[in-house]
User: What shape does this take?
Amino acid sequence: MPTQENNDDRIALLQGTLDLLILKTLILGPCHGQGVARSIQRQSEEVLFVDHGSLYLALQRLEDKKLIQAKWGTSENNRKARFYSLTAKGRAELTEKSSQWKRLTRAMDLILEPQGEDA
Amino acid sequence: MFKRKRSAEDFAEEIKAHLALEADDLRAEGQSEEEAQRRARVEFGNAALAKEKFRLRGRWQALDKFAGNLRFGIRSLLKSPGFALTAILTVALGVGANTAVFSVMNAVLLKSLPVADPQTLVNFRTSDAPRNTGTVDTNETMSYPVYDALRKQTGAISSLIAFVPLSNSKVAVRVGSQAEEAEGDMVSGTFFSGLGVDLPLGRGFTSEDEANHAPLVVLSYNYWTRRFARNPGILGQTFYVNSVPMTIIGISAPGFEGLEGGGSTDFWIPLQNRRELNAWGNPVEEGKLYITNPTWWCLRLIGRLPPGVNRTQAIAQLQPVFQSAARIGLGKPEQGEKPPILSFADAKNFPDQMYSNPLHILMAMVGLVLLIAFANVAMLLAARNAARQREFSVRQALGAGRGELFSQLLTESLLLVTAGGLLAWAFAVMAARLLANWAQIESSLAPDRTVLLFTMGVLVVAAVLFGLAPMRVALAGRAELALKTSAATSNADAGKSRTGRIIVALQMAMCVVLLVGAGLLIRTLSNLENTPLGMRIDGLVVFGVRPDIPSVPAGIAFYQNLMGKLRILPGVESVTIMEERIGSWWSDNSAMTVDGRLPEVTNGGSLTVRSNVAGPDFFTTLGVPILAGRDFADTDTAKTPRVGIINEEFAKRFLPNVNPLGHNIGSSDGRFTMSIVGVVKNHKYRSIDEAPIPMAWWMYAQIPVIGEMHVEMRVKGAPLAILPTAQKVVQQLDPNLPLIKPMTQRAQYDTTISSQIMFARLAEFFGLLAVVLVATGLYGTLSYRVNRRTAEIGVRMAMGAGRGQVVWMILRDSLRLTAIGVVAGVPLAMFIGRALTSSLYGVEPLDALTYALAIAGVTVVALVASAAPASRAASVNPLKALRTE
Assistant: This one.
């Protein structure tokens, strides 16, 4: 992103992973978009960076797929915000997608780790 | 749950909220107010882009998908151009034929009158007009006194419109020096204002124009376009109608061509009161015009009901007025005579029903063609897509949803239908013009919105049908099938081929129906064409003249003079004149007295005699044999005793077993009588298909009325070649006179069977089209089946089946389908034949020969269509066929 500062070792998200991260964040309870972004950044120890524009489109996509639902409410510091929460379908999706992800990372590890040992 | 789609505003609102929250957090982390807001915006990135993406979300997807489908569809159609071309042409022919027939039907039967609020207009009708009156149509025309009495009523009718043609064909008109002919009506002052027809140029008529019989003309938009190239300078110019100068004051709205279906009025003038412009071009009768003659019921009346008045109320008010006006000038009713009863009929559509029956049957025929065509394309598509079953299976295995497969098939069928539809439209515009020419329909046939909607409707049905038909097959190939390659296993689906066979059998049935229909109509036409007219028709040419006749002697002198000048032209054998042109549907019909009283006819037979007024050498010129007595001669004049001629049928019915010569016959009231001097052989008077009827002829020089006459000439060589010379002769006598409808007498008789000619030709064409379509359909289905059964045939041959057996196997298949089709088609054809009865001549609706030929026809079609696939099957090499397994 041209607007991003260069002195930054954050990693842009892999395609398709953003949805999973959003779902994971929302399992803790309803949250607004900005909160989701902050939460992802904080939990990944500031390694993962979320493009906010993409985030809102992703939220919309999840909403269209009925994985999450949204309603307008008030934040703790009294600002109007749109709060998202998981649906039952979203929960199921999260379970499935995170197990898929774990299998994938395990497979990646299996390939990457032994290689490192051989070297 | 029905949730409204999220709006873009709501999305923008959310982004704003985000920026505020982010700024709050940054401030809490110790940034300055300004820096916090800037950082929040920077962190967000391109907000506008996000909003744009939100807006386009979904739409892009659909559009992208459609474009993809479209590209894919075009590519896959281009890969099989033969298939694409066949399908597109079939759609074009089927839909085009339907559009053409429908647009004629729409123009003639369905279209509303192009006037304001047509549903509040009513046609005035009467039960039979009083006795001793003359009518144009017994139930539809009224006398001037009736019109005059009715229009003085207020309340029941807001405006009463009267109109009457100036002639039963065309009248002489002139702008500048060239005399020509045009169709014109005399109308009441309420005509344009009452109907609500606009005048884009100039003005319409007023009640004063009617009261003053003002010499004014309004031209129809069509005539203005055709004749004057829409020159606005024509307003104010002089327009001569039957030599009477009139001023052009207006042009009527485009699309308005008068109130008669199938016709087109060129101009209108206010109701006139002078002998040159009598109603229907009739000569003055005993000094009386239509306005002053209460026995001449010739005006058509249309009224507009005011708001809040229904028909019953209006009739209740008008009935007594109508019934007393009907007796004006007629004296006391005869004993037992019932008063005429006024009634209303819808004026919403054109009143003409002449084309109704033919057009409905034609529509049914093209409907059948359409069914056959659509079935063909559907089968083609199904066969083609069955061959693509592996492709579909693979795509399903790769995760394509049923919806996606369907939308792709739909796109392909949409492509076919669009291409076919465009071609069909071009084809239809041409065909409709041709059709109108044949049927001699003069109203404009430009396809309008109704026709467009009709065509679109048909095409949409086609698109969905063509999309759905192959879907069954496509879905039948489940994902697991993808990897199976055996022709034997993947083709074991008996169900779909059963559907195909049912469709072919149905097509055969429809083909039988069309062939029977076509056969009956073609035999009708050949019967009509070979019907003897009872005269030597070749070498006869006919034209009308309508001179200005100040008195009866002057009229006789004019025609004597004209005939004298024409007779001496080189190449002319003989010349005569007649009042009603023979072979034009017109005739004078009435009862006649025989020896002073109406003849008594047993068994309630008709008293009607068709009479005509003829000139000297009439039967000699026509070539009608004279059985007894003599022809009319120049020596029969107003000063010699009145003479008449009758036909055989007259003698047989009214003067049986006596020598008719010397007996007196006369008009039904007995005022005019004549002595029979000749009996001629029966021949056709009004039309080719008429049955023999009593006929009688008056000598033109001996009766007190004379007007427009038709000149009949027998010439050597090409009959029409004499016309320019004849025209010169006529114009020497009067430069205002055009030749009215000049043509050969044969062409004139042919106009009486024009609808049969058109019918037969179209039926022939549609029958042929059906045959071709059914043949291609059957060929397609069979060769597809043979292809798929190659392996089976190979096995059979390997097991010792001979070529003949294999060929027979294929032929048996199609013959069985033919048999089913015939069994289903014959009862349907009998039904159609019954509906056709009124259009047949000299052939029974159950004509055995026609049925036999139709059945033989479909059998031949079946055999020809099977020949190629059968021979391909016979040449299957068993080794090769089995090796491909």
Notes: The two ends of chain A are 36 Å apart (CA to CA). Chain A touches chain B at residues 1, 3, 32-35, 38, 51-54, 56-57, 60-61, 63, 75, 77, 79-82 (CB under 8 Å).
